[in-house]
């Protein structure tokens, strides 16, 4: 919302007014009405409230002014913008393990990012576009600031970072790329995106990663050490 007292009073943005009693309100342009002393006085005079509720929606932010309280709602953070159905946020280490295990023979792309990463922000909108164009692929994003232990265990040394998984093959490749080198991601999707027949249950995370996460009590693991079958069918015990 912009306020100018040079030659007129201007109010910018979209406005919605509500009160207990229905009223109408209009703003008339005022040109060359105020003297310099009047302008200075107007700037020092607090705005009075008569029960009106003013919602101002300006580009880039949202403000909610109610009564005498000036409250501003925080704009949506860029990494929390809703994406497509096949691109979602990983909530926990257990969530990642189960997501890979339950993906069947679909290609899964795990995207590691950080809100503090300068290269992640411009890449994020492009990721949504790519996910929308590849509905046959499952895209999972992992917030490095939230899941530091997981990123360290899974060996995601930098962000942005990508890992590709498919069915019984498990992890296919790992690499880092930014918006400037997005071709690496597109090439990997072309190489590994073709449909393949399953040779067994989905492998998911590597066994050493699963054991480390289980030892830190970050996931529940139920298969014997050294067993390479379908994870989750047996009780974990020491060798």
UniProtKB/TrEMBL annotation:
<dbReference type="InterPro" id="IPR013766">
    <property type="entry name" value="Thioredoxin_domain"/>
</dbReference>
<dbReference type="GO" id="GO:0045454">
    <property type="term" value="P:cell redox homeostasis"/>
</dbReference>
<comment type="similarity">
    <text>Belongs to the thioredoxin family.</text>
</comment>
<dbReference type="GO" id="GO:0009507">
    <property type="term" value="C:chloroplast"/>
</dbReference>
<keyword id="KW-0676">Redox-active center</keyword>
<dbReference type="Pfam" id="PF00085">
    <property type="entry name" value="Thioredoxin"/>
</dbReference>
<dbReference type="InterPro" id="IPR036249">
    <property type="entry name" value="Thioredoxin-like_sf"/>
</dbReference>
<protein>
    <submittedName>
        <fullName>Thioredoxin</fullName>
    </submittedName>
</protein>
<feature type="domain" description="Thioredoxin">
    <location>
        <begin position="54"/>
        <end position="194"/>
    </location>
</feature>
